[in-house]
Protein: Conserved hypothetical protein CHP02391 domain-containing protein
Organism: Kribbella sindirgiensis
Amino acid sequence: MNLKWMVERILAFRTTCVLISLSPSRIDGTFAPEDPWIARLAPRPDLEARYRSQLPTFLKIARVLEVALPGTVPVDVRKQARIYRRVTDTALGVARDWELVKKNLAPDGPTVGADQFHPHVWAAAEPLWGTGQFRVAVGAAATSLSAHIAQKAGSDLVDRALVQDVFAPKATSGRPRLHFPGDPNSDLWRSRQEGLHLTAQGAFAGIRNVAAHSHEEWSEQYALEMLAVLSVVARWTDQTELRAGSTDARPAAQAAGEIRV
């Protein structure tokens, strides 16, 4: 919303209202001969035309600003101008304070405490957070997450290569998989598993690698958003089950408990 333009339009209309209200009018609402000094400011026919052309725009602005408008106005243009001149004062005040009102009266948005992120994420980032090294803190959190995933999967891979392998939806002989429980043939399961697979790769490629190789410091807000992504990957990882490194889609614990003959 262009508040500067709105203020300019309100001021222009207010000036027109002031000029009109200073001049007498005939009974039919048309203007009577005006004082010479007013005539020098604006010829009367031009002033009336200006008033009528500016009024619709002002009314739209007033409605946007939620300024109360009179229910009815007199036919007499001079009396109209006096009424709307008072309305312009209110509209100017609202327009000039709009950003402050919006900022200070807006409902508070939800907040998430960093200490509520996944323990493997925040515990690694917290020691560095207080020093203002937010990018380095996020990098440490990503390293911790990688170790957490590798330990659960029993894999010797790290970072992007790790999640690309262990979260892959398709089982591969000899490779461990961390899969969500449920039917691997269902659309819901595929959506969840593919979401984890792709999100985790994006987290390590777009967050961990950038944090490790960038030399620019991150803002605290940006770093918090990156930690939130890592925390989501960690939460989803906790919901997965280790599946044997074969084409058997059942959890490894279940497969190991069977007696083969």
Residues 79 and 129 are 65 Å apart (CA to CA). The beta strands are 177-179, 241-243. The first helix runs from residue 3 to 21.
